[in-house]
Each structure stands twice: as C-alpha cells, then as structure tokens.
Design a protein that fits this description.
32% of the residues lie in helices and 25% in strands. With 439 residues, the chain is an alpha+beta fold. Helix 10 runs antiparallel to helix 11. The two termini are 32 Å apart.
C-alpha cells in the first residue's frame, strides 16, 4: 500500500475542473485488507475517508480533507461464473477495461452509459446510467457487493445476504462504506444496430412515447436555439457485424463530435452572439448513419470536450412537458446555450436512492463547456426540473438538500437509518453528504 501525504501540490481536482480538495493523505491499497486497515487508521487519527475514482462527478461527492482512497490497484476480474452468468470485479476497474475484458470472454453487460472512463465503483455509487426501455442503470445490473464499513469490517451483500444493505449500497453515494468488489449480471455478447438520424425537435416530442416504445434504447440530443435534434435508436440485431468504417468513424466521432465541436465551443465562448448560428451548423453536421457492432462500441463514445453538467430524472410521462418548458425558458431568457441537451430513459428499479427508484424515468441533461458561466442556465433549468419532482443525478451539479430528497424519494428515511447503523460516527461524511443526506 502506498500512502502519500498531500503537500504543496497535493490538490485533487475532478474531471470537469469545478471541484478541488486538499486531502491530508492519499492511500492506494493493494488489497481489501490494506483498505480496511486504512479506514481503521483514519478513525484513530480522527480523519474522514473518501474513495475517488476518475473524478467524473461534477459534484463534490468525492472531495475530502481527510484520507483520499484511490482504488486503482483493486482492479480486474476476480471471478467469472458461467452457470450464474455473473462476473465479479475489483472496485477500481475502469468501465472501458471491464468492457474489453468481458468481450474477450464473449460476455457483455446488458446496458451501459455513454462514457466509459469511470471506475465501476464510482459509476455505481453515483447512479451512472445509459438509456433503456427495459434495461436500467449499471447499478441495476448488480448481483452482489463487497464493502468495507466504518469500523473496518468487510461486508458482503446480495439479495440473500445483508439484503437491506444490498438494497441501498448499489447506489450508496460513498456514505455506507468503501466498495471493494462488485458482482454484475452478464450475458453472452450480442450485437446492436444503431440508427442515428437528425429529426425535428417538434416531431421527436410528438412521437416521444412511440419512439420510446418501439426501441430498446432511444435517446436524442436537442440543440438549443434550433428546432433540430440528433436521434439514436439502438436495438439488438442478428447481424452481420457492420461497424462504422474507420475513416468515417474518425471524421464523425473525433473530427466533428470532438475536434470541430471543441473549436465551435471556443468561438462561442469568445463571441457568445455567434452561438445560435453555431448551433444551427452543429445540429446539421452529423448525417444519418446505421451500423452494427458489439454493445460497448455502440453505447459508448469518446468525450474529449470538457464540460459541466446538470441532469435530472423526471417521471417519464412528464418528459415532453419539461422539454417544452426548457425550450421556452431558453428562448425567452436571452441566454446563449452552445451545448446540446441530452435526453434518455430508464425503467423503474428497486434501489433505495436510484434516480429511477419506483418510477419509469426520463433523464434530461443540460451542459455548458468548461470555463463558461453556467449558473444562470442551470438555475433556470433546475427550477423546471424540480417543479416536476425531478431527482438530480448524484454526480452532477445541483442545489438540492436532504429536505428536498425526503420528499422525492419515498425510501429516503430507509437509507439514512441504514447509514446511522453502518457509519454512526460519520467516517465517510463530507460537505456534500451533509447537504444531501442531512447531518
């Protein structure tokens, strides 16, 4: 185990660049036992403990002035059970490495988000999700968990063992313990056919229920200041495999979606008046395409343009109303919004603090490029989301607190009672958890 005492340059920053912390020390445990020892030693020294993955959260959920635990040595596949169709992996495994390792074994997760830089533990702890009619978040695919609790105990949980911990810890916000291993349900690798095409915003809203019902995975991006969207429909396919040709993929996914888009963001920051024109051009830059490939090559895409994001889950039946209100707000406000709005869905699940807990949900995400003032836009959007009992993504910018959450999560008290039992001294507390869960 390596321990680093943070000195002059011992500042941790998140991916979006909007959160910084100065931990007293950093620990990189090489085993679960070393991690448990680090938690016990932190208690002796009166220090708080926070694990951090790749810093892809835009909230300060991982920030601490105590002991920062980096789990990257707790990575890789521990076990594959082909009878139960499960795979157990170390908490520090990055999703991109998990996807590649599973593909080599002829296996795949059922659904995934669109970014794969995160560690598995970071992704599940904040409720990372993709889009799906029947298939939920990454956490909804968990069959078992191992975590180190505040007194250094290693706890295993599943539907059969420590079931009440399992119900909550799949999206535990880092409040119940440090996740050390996760067992996921997997299935034989399959093919997805992706159909991407531009579609007028008004048509998408008019046909939203139909597009959701007819596709296993439907999502779209709306470009504010325009009536244009790019839609994406992913459905299982019998094949044959027909990936995007390499040059075309580079032009569309790297040059246009990252390179040209980055330049457009720079121009928009320097001259905000040009943003509506840039939005119109950007919304028409990508042409329709259809391709068939293995899941991780369809679900995920590179994101090299750094941004800050707010995302709320609203009841799925409220999605169209919320989007209309969002468009009206942008049009009337005079704000210049250079980043598209992303819309996805998820079925109801049974995880205590999942944004889809107990209700079919639509996710609406607003973004601003890193370094651009985002507060006015996000505040106005949040007002709309919360008017529809929206639940913010735990890893994305929001201003909600425990009082609000106790109103939109029917099982909120169940989670906080479990936290009182597992972490009575608040070893895993930080300012963010104090706000969202209460003291």
């Amino acid at each position: 185990m390596s321990t680093t005492v943070s000195g002059k340059n011992g500042t941790w920053r998140n991916w979006g660049g909007n959160v910084a912390a100065r931990p007293a020390r950093e620990v990189t445990p090489a085993s679960v036992e070393e991690l448990a020892d680090a938690v016990r030693k932190a208690a002796e020294d009166g220090l708080k403990v926070k694990p951090v993955g790749t810093g892809h959260s835009f909230t300060s959920i991982a920030a601490t002035d105590g002991v920062l635990i980096r789990p990257q040595l707790l990575s890789g596949i521990r076990d594959i059970d082909r009878d139960d169709m499960t795979v157990t992996v170390g908490a520090g495994t990055q999703l991109k490495r998990l996807n590649l390792a599973l593909a080599r074994e002829g296996l795949s997760l059922r659904n995934m988000g669109d970014i794969m830089e995160q560690t598995v533990s970071g992704a599940i702890s904040t409720g990372t999700h993709g889009t799906g009619r029947e298939s939920g978040s990454i956490a909804a695919q968990i069959k078992g968990l191992e975590l180190v609790t505040a007194d250094g105990t290693v706890l295993t949980c599943s539907e059969k063992e420590n079931a009440e911990v399992f119900a909550a810890a799949r999206i535990g916000l880092g409040a119940l313990g440090v996740v050390t291993a996760i067992t996921f349900a997997v299935e034989p690798i399959f093919l997805l056919t992706a159909r991407e095409e531009p579609m007028p915003f008004d048509r998408v809203l008019a046909d939203f229920d139909e597009l959701w019902a007819e596709n296993e995975h439907f999502e779209f991006y709306w470009f504010p200041h325009t009536g244009n969207t790019n839609t994406k429909r992913n459905n299982r396919s019998a094949g044959p495999e027909k990936p995007v040709p390499q040059l075309q993929g580079w032009i569309e996914d790297e040059f246009l979606s990252n390179g040209v888009f980055q330049v457009a963001q720079w121009v928009g920051r320097a001259a905000p008046g040009t943003i509506p024109t840039i939005a119109r051009i950007s919304s028409r830059a990508l042409s329709a395409r259809t391709y068939t490939d293995v899941p991780y090559k369809v679900f995920t895409s590179p994101r090299r343009v750094r941004f800050v994001e707010m995302e709320y889950a609203v009841p799925r039946e409220a999605a169209v109303t919320v989007l209309r209100e969002l468009r009206t707000m942008v049009d009337r406000s005079g704000m210049k919004v250079s980043f598209p709005v992303e819309v996805r869905t998820a079925p109801a699940d049974d995880i205590t603090l999942s944004t889809a807990s107990g209700r079919d949900s639509a996710y609406i995400a607003v973004h601003m490029v890193k370094g651009t003032p985002y507060q006015a836009y996000f505040t106005a959007a949040e007002r709309i989301f919360t008017a529809h009992e929206g639940r913010p993504h735990w890893g994305k910018v929001h201003t909600r607190d425990a009082e609000y959450f106790s109103g939109v999560y029917p099982r909120f008290g169940e989670f906080t009672a479990l936290r009182d039992r597992l972490d009575p001294d608040r070893r895993f507390q930080n300012d963010y958890l104090r706000r969202v869960l209460g003291a």
